[in-house]
Each structure stands twice: as structure tokens, then as C-alpha cells.
Inverse folding.
């Protein structure tokens, strides 16, 4: 009975081994992870934004230019958040639960920060500034 080699399995051994690049992540592997996961995140986020914006575009509540900006902005944000989450998850030496939690937390934090920069100050804080209170 012949055994099929497991990926990265050393010849004559039944124990899989990992290439140096996976066992010891480098800046290059982090960049590759960021780009690949970011591209996937941008594709998924952009598709979801397109689906949501299509209704508004069809009923005329947004212009084509605004819809394009919204879709591209969402794709960029979700791509960056997914890429950053994947880099953090790849840098951890934990099980699937830990890396999944780290990826979700990092992605959520990145989106929170990016959305916070895009939104104007809340009306209440604006009113306080007008009164001279801060």
C-alpha cells in the first residue's frame, strides 16, 4: 500500500513539515497575506455594497457617481480590514478559534477607525463647541 505524500512532508517521514516561510513569517509573507486577503475582502465587500447600492441607484435616490464612490470606498475599507485581520491572524501561534477571533476583532477595529474618520462630528458635540463648551 503506497502512501501519498502530505504537502511539505519530508521524504521517508509520516510527519508533515512546513516550509521555512510558513514556520517563520517574514515581511514578504505578511505583505503577500495582506494583498491576497485584502483582495478577497475588497471583492466580497464591494459585491455586498454593489447589491445594496443597486436598489438606490434604480429608484434614483443616488447618482451613478455617488453609487460608484460608495461601492469603491466600501471595497477599499473591507479589503484593508480583511487584509489587516489576516496579517494579525497569521502572526499568532494559536488554534483556529484564536486566529479567527483575532481576525474578526482586528477587522472590526479597522472598520471602526475608518468609519470614525469619515463621519462628521455628532450634532450634540457640535452644539457644545458653538456654546464654547468642550
Amino acid at each position: 500500500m503506497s502512501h501519498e505524500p502530505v504537502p511539505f512532508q519530508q521524504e521517508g517521514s509520516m510527519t508533515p513539515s512546513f516550509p521555512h516561510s510558513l514556520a517563520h513569517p517574514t515581511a514578504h509573507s505578511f505583505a503577500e497575506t495582506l494583498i491576497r486577503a485584502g483582495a478577497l475582502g475588497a471583492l466580497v465587500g464591494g459585491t455586498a455594497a454593489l447589491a445594496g447600492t443597486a436598489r438606490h441607484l434604480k429608484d434614483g435616490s443616488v447618482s451613478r457617481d455617488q453609487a460608484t464612490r460608495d461601492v469603491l470606498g466600501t471595497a477599499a475599507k473591507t479589503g484593508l480590514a480583511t487584509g489587516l485581520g489576516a496579517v494579525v491572524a497569521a502572526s499568532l501561534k494559536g488554534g483556529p478559534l484564536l486566529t479567527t477571533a483575532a481576525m474578526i476583532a482586528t477587522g472590526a477595529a479597522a472598520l471602526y477607525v475608518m468609519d470614525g474618520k469619515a463621519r462628521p462630528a455628532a450634532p450634540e458635540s457640535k452644539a457644545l463647541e458653538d456654546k464654547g463648551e468642550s
Q: What stands out?
A: Residues 27-117 form one domain. The first helix runs from residue 20 to 23.
